Amino acid sequence: MPIYSIQAPNGKTYRIEGPEGASQDEVIDEVLRQHPESGEAAKPKEGILAALGKGAESYASQVRTALQGPSAESAEAGIARGKDINTRYANQADPEKVIEAYQKDGALSALGTAVPMVPYAIAEQAPTFASAVAGAQLGQKLGTPFGGAGRLAGAGLGALVGRFAS
């Protein structure tokens, strides 16, 4: 019997053995029978490591878009990558939730909503921070021949380039 392979809504690929000439619907039905969980969409990843992963993937996507140059195609591809990232990772640092809490119950409620989001927001921004730090260090080294002011200016320019080059 041939082996059929299908990617399910949960993101996993299933391989099953089936009769010759089975239709795609028959394969889907059999996968669902054997693996009922396969019909459910994958739950977005959560936690601090997921936030770091989301940030890293988002940053890499921005760099990729920048390297492809300014075009409608690269912009559309970047938007599609962003949507994909947002479906695979939970939105753990959502400013809309803070705004909603403020409008509903005031500043104290908004603060109570925002504070637990801070570690996730920092983790999502870690790759961006790292690129700015790396740029600052490189700029500082390049500015060394020009003395203290050169090192300071180089660090500042390097941080800006590292941050905004993507």
Structure summary:
By secondary structure, this protein is mainly alpha-helical. The chain folds into two domains: about 5-40, no CATH class; about 50-165, no CATH class.
Throw out a few tags for this protein.
mainly alpha, 2 domains, 7 helices, 2 strands, extended
- Oligomeric state of the chains in view: single chain
Average pLDDT confidence is 90
> Approximately how much helix is present in the residues?
55-70%
Structural class: mainly alpha
| Order of helical and strand elements | EEHHHHHHH
- Report the strand count: 2
How much of the residues is beta strand, in percent?
5-15%
Morphology call: extended
In what order do the strands lie side by side in the largest sheet?
1-2
